[in-house]
Amino acid sequence: MSHLDDEIHMLAETVDRYVADRAGGRASGGDAWTELADLGWLLLPYPEAAGGLGLGAAGVSAVMQGHGRGLLPTPYLPFIVMAGGALARCPRAADALAAVMAGERRVAAGFAVGRPAAITAEPDGAGWRLGGTQPHVLAVDEADAVLVAARPGAEGGTGLFLVGLDLPGVTVETYPLPDGRRAGRVILNGVALPAADRLDDGDAAALLGDVETATLLAAAAENLGAMQVLYEETLAYAKLRKQFGRPIGSFQSLQFRLVDMWIKLDEVRSLVASAAAAGDGPEAAQLAVAAWIQSLWSGRSIGEEAIQLHGAIGMTEEHAAGRYVKRILVNELLFGAPERHFARYRSTMQG
Amino acid sequence: MSHLDDEIHMLAETVDRYVADRAGGRASGGDAWTELADLGWLLLPYPEAAGGLGLGAAGVSAVMQGHGRGLLPTPYLPFIVMAGGALARCPRAADALAAVMAGERRVAAGFAVGRPAAITAEPDGAGWRLGGTQPHVLAVDEADAVLVAARPGAEGGTGLFLVGLDLPGVTVETYPLPDGRRAGRVILNGVALPAADRLDDGDAAALLGDVETATLLAAAAENLGAMQVLYEETLAYAKLRKQFGRPIGSFQSLQFRLVDMWIKLDEVRSLVASAAAAGDGPEAAQLAVAAWIQSLWSGRSIGEEAIQLHGAIGMTEEHAAGRYVKRILVNELLFGAPERHFARYRSTMQG
Amino acid sequence: MTMIFSDADKAFAADVRDYLAANLPEELARKVRYNQRLTRDDYTGWQDVLAARNWYAVGWPAEAGGPGLTQTQRYLFERAYGALPCPHPCQFGIAMAGPVIFTFGNEEQKERFLPGIRENRDFWCQGYSEPGAGSDLAALKTTAVREGDHYRVNGQKIWTTWANWADWMFCLVKTDLQVKPQRGISFLLIDMRSPGITVRPIRTIDGDHEFNEVFLNDVMVPVENRIGEEGQGWTYAKFLLEFERFSMSGAARSRRVLSEIRADAEALGRTGDARLAERLTGLEIELLALEHMELRLLARSVGGENPGPEASKLKIRGTEIAQALSRLRVDLHAEDCLVHSDAFLDALEPSSNPAAGGAVATYLNQRKLTIWGGSNEVQRMILAKQILELG
Amino acid sequence: MTMIFSDADKAFAADVRDYLAANLPEELARKVRYNQRLTRDDYTGWQDVLAARNWYAVGWPAEAGGPGLTQTQRYLFERAYGALPCPHPCQFGIAMAGPVIFTFGNEEQKERFLPGIRENRDFWCQGYSEPGAGSDLAALKTTAVREGDHYRVNGQKIWTTWANWADWMFCLVKTDLQVKPQRGISFLLIDMRSPGITVRPIRTIDGDHEFNEVFLNDVMVPVENRIGEEGQGWTYAKFLLEFERFSMSGAARSRRVLSEIRADAEALGRTGDARLAERLTGLEIELLALEHMELRLLARSVGGENPGPEASKLKIRGTEIAQALSRLRVDLHAEDCLVHSDAFLDALEPSSNPAAGGAVATYLNQRKLTIWGGSNEVQRMILAKQILELG
């Protein structure tokens, strides 16, 4: 086992404990984000040179699986993987990244996977003036700034701008997502920024592509965590619940469906594990996209089966099944259905 | 029950007896086509005004279900439904149709469903000169003529030409289809025809569209007959065959699969019955196309399940399952996969 | 096998269509169209519109005070009804309590209960399921002990749709614990205002409240509220099941939903999306097959044959198709579905894409279709045993 | 969990790839590429090429005379092998008879049989299935009665692949009819030239002849041809099963078929077909998931853990994907698949679209994948019991 494998293994154990503590009501009661900072998770994916722990996709995958298993509300994905991931790829964003890693600054992600930038940036003297509406910015009500992707004037390409939410011209309208997480529309109305707040090196398209890949893998890992619970709960329920005088798990047609759930879970688990271990490069990107697509195929099917096999109890708000199903569904709506990523997948194929 | 219903009911009983006789080795031993003529089946679909029995699609459906159940080799579909159906729609083809109905002339179908005409016709004095190759002409080795669709010179549209197979310039290369039926390539090399052998009234496109719809319904009915046998054989086998000390039909997962086969069969049966009873018009065309598509969806699934549930025995040439599966598969290859007909289906939709 | 409609039938269908179209309030149609939540008043107000033509208890024979429609007219009624965004009328009185009462009740019971159901004065709910006894009625635990001219009822019902709105509940209870379950169950009508009844809401994953738990604690039910004989409740419940399955294809509703999704796709400029067009066409053909399965079964029951257990196929395919449509709507609207709010679902707040507003809630809500009314697994068991005769 | 290949491993993979590419005859590659039928000489000729590098018995440990590859090298070998249109080597000697002999056989048996298998001199077949006993070995009926230093064997085997070509058959027989089946079965090696053996061909729906019935009529088998103890045959058969499932994913072959279909689609100018592109991409991702499930299981067995019953998942998904690919090829070539002839399949006749020529026969042939080697239903039963622990 390599050194990295060791660290990831230890991290996964910490995540398990953290999730179990929160599930068991043993959460600290303090600010969850501060807890994550104390655990070192905010540093975890970034390169050691930048002050991070260098655990990359493997580390993110472990933390995100925990988010899925425990349905954690902390915005690790948008703040650390998306916004922080973009900052870590911008040479001039070292200060902002350091503040993110320290938990001092909470930056939301003002860009969407697979969608062109919704914001425009017009040159304005030495600086910029931003306008437009960015929908579905996750956890923006917990952020103090948003990193937006914008189309800069006539020059083309995509720019990355760090926008404080307290700036004049910034409005945020928040709303609950179907799974209970919160998001918001960020409306920029002629927001003036100094030149220094544009953080990319001329065109952010390529780095945003990498961030999107990392986002898909992180979301796949979260889905994996969620569907693992769905599978385990359904299997346990099938052994317990009796109908017609027998445990329903003794009916062969249900056994086969549970076996298929187990296989679908294993397909996601295998792709997420390989993608997380693959480092960089086209094979890693291919595995990440495949992991995301498979996580939706498997997630839909495991989720629907989990509700069906639980019967009416699975339909209730009190039971956990629905919450897990909604988490996976909302992730799909946020990051894009399988077929929307087929072209991306094909573009990563070699030979 | 209407008069037509009565006649169809009697016809279906005759078809059942005919199929049972042939399956039981009680076939006459004479020429099968002459038998069909004696039974009146060659007259059956055509209007009474043309000397037919006026039983239309309902009559064809009954005869074709028998072809499917009994895997009859007689080329009723290409000769009576396709070529004869086209002749019946050509005002100047009364003589040819009469000869077909009498069993005196056997005309193969030189056109394919959903494909443009493969033959060209150049004006040549008062007549025409035909060239090109028509592939996959069913049972052409039993025919003495072929009714070809051809693109006539500069005038556009589609013409219908009756071509004797003994004419100079006509070559036929026959081959077996994967299900054992025979087809052939008809190669026309400057075949000279008098003007009178062009049978359509200027453009045959619309009438060929109607013939195609009738062909799809007839082929759906044949598929229905075939999958009915597959279902019945599989159900019977599941009750008989023991594994792990119990009939395999007592295993719940198999029971559910058999139920799904039964439902899929019923879906085809319902659409074929409604389409056959619907007369003419857009609703009839819509039902016919839907019946064809459903017959492939159900047919694939019932066929694959029939082989799987029979186990290795279903893989053998001696067992009937494979022959039925191949009949349905070859029909699909001849007349086009489901998605190829989606546009046709949509064009028949009202509102 | 053919189903040809007479001129009288066609005129009837036109009458239904015209009356419904003229009397469906615009605001209510909008709520149904966009899958917003309906209130008790939405339902009862609309059912009054139906009752005014005696079309609320539309399936009842004339002897029971119903319109006495033929099977063909019933079919045409459902088709016309499904084509418009009308609320699905509450079924527990008209399709369940009513038929049991007019088939197995005595004259006094018929006079007492049927008018209130037919005229939409009483709101009914169904007390079948219990914790641990869903599709398996043999496991019922609620008891009714005879004490003079009353039963003392104790137990708990669950998944009781609209118990919170109901005036009456028809209920399966155990009156004999000694015999095998099929012989010891009775069918009681219980006034929901009786002392000892507590209704507790169950919220579902779509955030809605239609299910309830009903706790029965020493509830005294007059013996005259028992339908039929003591111990025969199982028979009456079975009698209802086949009716229920026959009406559970939901084909007319699915036909409407399909056309709404197509309209939404056009409004969103997505007609050129080949994958979407294929999914729509594919579902359209599946639905056509369902409709013609239903028509054939109908044609046979016109001929006097009881649909019997075969009707399970309609429930299976109908619910599968309805669920597929609810998923297709989510896929069509994609991220537009994210802006979800109870205020929209309760019709308090407008939305820029209202068709997306209720899409997720409907997708989640429709998961129930394959669970309730006898889960689809139970339907397949019925077909395997009773039609395929697999042991 | 990571699988990083050492430089030595990479060099090994390159060596395999280069050797196979240099020694695969063009005509043979073409036959495999176009799903034409292979003769016994096609197989044995190619297996000689493998045996020349001791790569026919590629999975054997060094003690048994095999190459003693690590699990990682095995995986790399399969991957390189599957990438080329090489015939699938006959498995019954190298993957079944061999491992049982070198694991449970005595020294004399090892010396007598292993070299012939390893060096591709003896052609083996497998005598497990009987009429009425396919995946259910407890129902075996073939008997072996001890008479001095021989067994007298009577019975019938069925679905015996290549019995018509075989020199030897390994065979499960009943040596004790009194005990329960799991204790009364023995494992015999039978010379196919023994008097009393009759082989009758079974033609399959694709027109091929690879299955046979084998009738055993008073066949005298020396006791020294029994492997291991009398009555322990069930144990040896079970030992083989997990190996078999592990090798039954067919992922490498499916990867090759997928790239062939993509090449065919390009040759036919169908790259713009969105539906085709989606099906290809979808299957490609399913296959990638299969490959990584396999890699993970491999990584664990590198760590010393037996793959165990989990390997059933590879058999299930691998065969499902292979069947889907065989269907996709038929759909791609559509009516071009109609021109079917035994002459083409036997490589006697050219075709204008050779990729279509064997498409239907292959689709039909591949139906066997989910039936044999323990049907996929049996695999699911194994997983339900042994992994999910469902009673």
Q: Which keywords apply here?
A:
heterotetramer; A: 351 residues; alpha+beta; Butyryl-Coa Dehydrogenase, subunit A, domain 1; Butyryl-CoA Dehydrogenase, subunit A, domain 2; Butyryl-CoA Dehydrogenase, subunit A, domain 3; 3 domains; seven-stranded mixed β-sheet; two-stranded antiparallel sheet; 10 helices; 9 strands; elongated; C: 391 residues; four-stranded mixed β-sheet; four-stranded antiparallel β-sheet; 47% helix; globular
Q: Which descriptor suits the 3D outline of chain A?
A: elongated
State which percent range the strand residues of chain A make up. 15-25%
Order of helices and strands of chain A: HHHHHEEEEEEEHEEHHHH
Mean pLDDT score of chain C, rounded?
A: 92
Report the total helices of chain C.
Answer: 14
CATH class of the largest domain in chain A: Mainly Alpha
Number of strands of chain A: 9
Number of strands of chain C: 8
Tell me what the CATH architecture of the largest domain in chain C is: Up-down Bundle
In the CATH scheme, the class of the largest domain in chain C would be Mainly Alpha
- Look up the CATH topology of the largest domain in chain C: Butyryl-CoA Dehydrogenase, subunit A, domain 3
> First CA to last CA of chain A: what distance?
31 Å
Biggest beta-sheet profile of chain A: 7 strands, mixed
Strand content of chain C: 5-15%
Give me the Rg of chain A, rounded: 21 Å
CATH architecture of the largest domain in chain A: Up-down Bundle
* Oligomeric nature of the chains: heterotetramer
* Helix/strand order of chain C, N-terminal first: HHHHHHEEEEEEEEHHHHHHHH
How can the largest sheet of chain C be summarized?
Answer: 4 strands, mixed
- How many separate helices of chain A? 10
| Overall 3D shape of chain C | globular
Can you walk me through this structure?
- The complex is a heterotetramer, with two copies of chain A (351 residues) and two copies of chain C (391 residues).
- Chain A has helices at 3-23, 32-39, 56-70, 76-88, 94-101, 205-240, 252-277, 282-310, 320-335, 342-347; strands at 107-110, 119-124, 127-138, 145-152, 159-164, 170-176, 182-193, 242-243, 246-247.
- The longest helix of chain A is centred in the middle third of the chain and has 36 residues, at 205-240.
- Chain A has 351 residues and is α+β, with helices and mostly antiparallel strands.
- In chain A, helix 3 runs antiparallel to helix 7 (252-277).
- In chain A, a hairpin with a 2-residue loop joins strand 8 and strand 9 (246-247).
- Chain A is built from ten helices and nine strands.
- Chain C is globular, with a radius of gyration of 21 Å.
- Chain C is of the alpha+beta class.
- In chain C, the strands form two sheets. In chain C, strands 1-4-5-8 form a four-stranded mixed sheet. In chain C, strands 2-3-7-6 form a four-stranded antiparallel sheet, with no helix packed on it.
- The longest helix of chain C has 29 residues, at 274-302.
- Chain C has helices spanning 7-23, 26-33, 40-51, 71-83, 91-104, 107-118, 233-246, 251-267, 274-302, 312-333, 342-345, 354-357, 359-365, 376-387, and strands spanning 124-127, 143-147, 150-157, 168-174, 185-191, 197-202, 211-222, 226-227.
- In chain C, a hairpin with a 2-residue loop joins strand 2 (143-147) and strand 3.
- Chain C starts with 6 loop residues before the first helix and ends with a helix.
- Chain C folds into three domains: 7-89, no CATH class; 123-233, Butyryl-CoA Dehydrogenase, subunit A, domain 2; 248-387, Butyryl-CoA Dehydrogenase, subunit A, domain 3.
